[in-house]
Specification:
By secondary structure, the chain is of the alpha/beta class. It has 17 helices and 27 strands. The strands form four sheets. Strands 10, 11, 12, 13, 14, 15, 16, 17, 18, 19 and 20 form an eleven-stranded mixed β-sheet that branches. A nine-stranded parallel β-sheet has the order 5-4-3-2-1-9-8-7-6, covered by helices on one side. Strands 21-22-27-24-25 form a five-stranded antiparallel β-sheet, with helices on one face. The structure holds zinc ion (ZN).
């Protein structure tokens, strides 16, 4: 439970002298910083030689910070094993699918299955936790850093052996495994566990079920590494919450599983603010983080004060944009704003990444914006722990993502995130709050559930979605859903087999479009909406038609349908609609479900709300370059300016208001 909005950043005192630490502590106080993340990459400084731990320097830093009112997210520095450890145990280094060893000299150069790595990491974490177990400055454990950020699985011998053990647990017998992987195909049947390999480089397409199990296994392996450390920290410091920093929609790690193992979800978020839709991408990430934590407040662990250094051209956040993005995180349920990093490095691969305290020092725009925001956040304590309530959910499942984007599909241009983003964008622009939900989770609290490309569905999720509609929910499902089971085997028959009743239709044929091929959907409102990529050829068994194709050999056949099912309604979209068409369809579904915007606002003005049962706060963000007038539902008090606002509020370009409604 925090009492002030968390504000600060990653701090790497190991790069600086004690004189600089003093200056840092003073400047942090000046900037309103109340939290830093410490030690993230400090393994060699904490353990300069095997088993020789040195925390004296860290004691000094933490005591100094604490004396200046700064609390600490203490990191376990296990994301970058020191060179001495690699010299002793070169088998720690990860190996790619092509058999190439990835060397040290960078970071995250470890195999999650290396026994030596896991043992050294556990011993260091134990020593660190025991040393700091009673220190009042430690507020949060920050385990490792950005799990699986650069690696896409390790293919070394130890990893292959671990994969076999994982498969034995999942499938029990070789017979089951052969069945699950469909190994009758291409003479792939296994007669001994030792024959099983990681999906290394092969001449042609790898077995898709094998690949899917490998992705599950790799994700589970990182979670195992997290759990190793969590067990130690829980035992030593049962009252200090635990997190590990996520990276938005990061494909190789099942964040639903990992989030369930942590106390607070935290995010590193680096939108490219030179792109017009950066705020949509950010919003999508924020909403995913809130959803991963079951609606609890989350923490923005890292963002850039201005530019990053890892794109080809690293554009600045223009004046006011950092502030706007920060408030957007709060608007979507964060209880804190943190940055990478506090003081700009002068050496190393991130020396040109921006920092709260830039190379040029305090006489700078960046520093002024940082200190100004730090001051403003001190007025917002009352919104802490309040929650965002969404009536709409988008289904999202990592296993589906892996399976959908495997090789050798009818169209390999069906991608999950672009579809999710297209839908999210429309809802975002209407100021409709959105949660993300696992398809097996309780959906009953949502008026509208959107299921984009739910290609892989387990029996449980199929039943769950069916029940949701039968009991009165409104569903919008998009094409190539319900196609395979959780072994990535086709559910043959009247597709989508698990949803055919629910949708009141079946699909006779998939039509993948050539590049640049398009069609038009004649919608029930008389409009023609362009579509591309794909057409399902739909046969109706009860659904009504809301739109049909204008052209091609399937002209006149249904493209968009609606079906009453039980107490609810299901919509189905059998093609990729361009923007206007998707907007129209979402308007139909929202109206049917009774989903309303948080507030009607002019274009470019985002509005969200947070409540705590007693109070409701509206977060109004003017992303546009012109002033906007916003009509409020009731008089309110703006926490930032302190002023009373009557029913009509004027908001300047890129300005923010946080309104406590009367
Ligand atoms: Zn390995």
């Amino acid at each position: 439970m925090v009492t002030h909005v968390i504000y600060g950043g990653d701090y790497n005192p190991e790069q600086w002298t004690p004189e600089v630490w003093e200056e840092d502590a003073r400047l942090m106080q000046e900037a309103g910083v109340n939290r830093v993340s410490l030690g993230i990459f400090a393994w060699v400084k904490m353990e300069p030689a095997p088993g020789q731990y040195d925390f004296t320097w860290l004691d000094q830093v933490i005591d100094l910070l604490h004396a200046h009112g700064v609390q600490v997210n203490l990191a376990t520095p296990t994301a970058s094993p020191p060179p001495w450890l690699i010299r002793l145990h070169p088998e720690i280094l990860p190996v790619t699918a092509d058999g190439v060893t990835l060397w040290h000299g960078s970071r995250r150069h470890y195999c999650p299955h290396s026994r030596a790595y896991r043992e050294y990491a556990s011993r260091l974490v134990t020593a660190l936790a025991e040393h700091y177990q009673n220190h009042p400055a430690i507020s949060l454990w920050h385990i490792d850093n950005e799990y699986s950020c650069h690696e896409n699985g390790c293919f070394c011998d130890a990893s292959v052996e671990a994969f076999r053990q994982w498969l034995q647990k999942r499938h029990g017998t070789l017979e089951n495994l052969n069945k699950a992987w469909g190994t009758a195909f291409w003479s792939q049947t296994y007669t001994d566990w030792q024959e099983i390999q990681a999906p290394k480089r092969t001449p042609a397409f790898i077995n898709p079920s094998q690949k899917l199990d490998w992705e599950r296994f790799c994700s589970d392996s990182w979670i195992d590494c997290f759990e190793d450390q969590k067990v130690i920290l829980r035992r030593t410091t049962p009252n200090i919450p635990i997190t590990t920093n996520f990276m938005n929609f990061h494909r190789s790690l099942d964040y639903w599983k990992l989030a369930a193992a942590e106390n607070i979800v935290s995010l590193d978020c680096y939108p490219d603010t030179s792109l017009p839709d950066w705020r949509v991408e950010s919003g999508m990430g924020w909403d995913m983080m809130r959803s991963l934590g079951g609606g609890r407040p989350w923490l923005l662990m890292e963002q850039a004060p201005t530019h990053v250094n890892w794109r080809q051209r690293n554009t600045t956040k223009r004046p006011g944009i950092m502030r706007l993005g920060s408030y957007q995180a709060l608007a979507h349920g964060s209880d804190g704003i943190m940055f990478f990093q506090w003081r700009a490095s002068v050496a190393g691969a991130e020396k040109f990444h921006s920092a709260m305290l830039p190379h040029v020092g305090t006489d700078s725009r960046v520093w002024r914006e940082i200190t100004s925001l730090g001051g403003e956040l001190q007025k917002l304590d009352e919104v802490l722990s309040s929650r965002v309530q969404a009536e709409t959910a988008i289904l999202f499942d990592w296993e589906n993502w892996w399976a959908l984007e495997g090789q050798a599909k009818v169209s390999n241009d069906i991608r999950l995130l672009p579809q999710v983003k297209a839908i999210y964008t429309e809802l975002f622009q209407r100021n409709i709050s959105v949660d993300f939900a696992h398809p097996e989770s309780d959906l009953s609290r949502y008026r509208l559930v959107i299921a984009p490309h739910v290609y892989l569905v387990s029996e449980r999720s199929a039943k769950n979605i069916d029940q949701y509609v039968a009991q009165g929910g409104t569903l919008l499902m998009t094409f190539f859903s319900g196609i395979v089971d959780d072994n990535d085997h086709v559910r043959a028959g009247h597709m989508p087999v698990p949803f055919s009743n629910l949708l009141g239709l079946w699909i006779e044929e998939f039509v993948a479009y050539a590049e640049a091929q398009t069609n038009v959907v004649e919608a029930a409102n008389g409009q023609g909406y362009p579509c591309e990529l794909w057409s399902d050829i739909i046969r109706l068994t009860g659904a009504e038609v809301l739109g049909h194709y204008r052209e091609d050999y399937f002209a006149g056949s249904p493209a968009i349908t609606r079906h009453r099912y039980g107490k609810g309604t299901s919509y189905y979209l059998g093609t990729e609609l361009a923007r206007d068409g998707l907007a129209w369809l979402l308007d139909q579904a929202c109206a049917e479900a009774g989903v309303r915007p948080v507030l009607e606002a002019p274009p470019g003005v985002e509005v969200t709300s947070r409540s705590n049962g007693t109070h409701t706060w509206l977060f109004v963000l003017n992303h546009s370059d012109v002033e906007a007038w916003v009509k409020l539902p009731a008089p309110a008090t703006d926490l930032i300016s302190g002023s009373r606002v009557e029913s009509l509020m004027q908001l300047g370009a890129r300005q923010v208001a946080i309104l406590r409604l009367s």
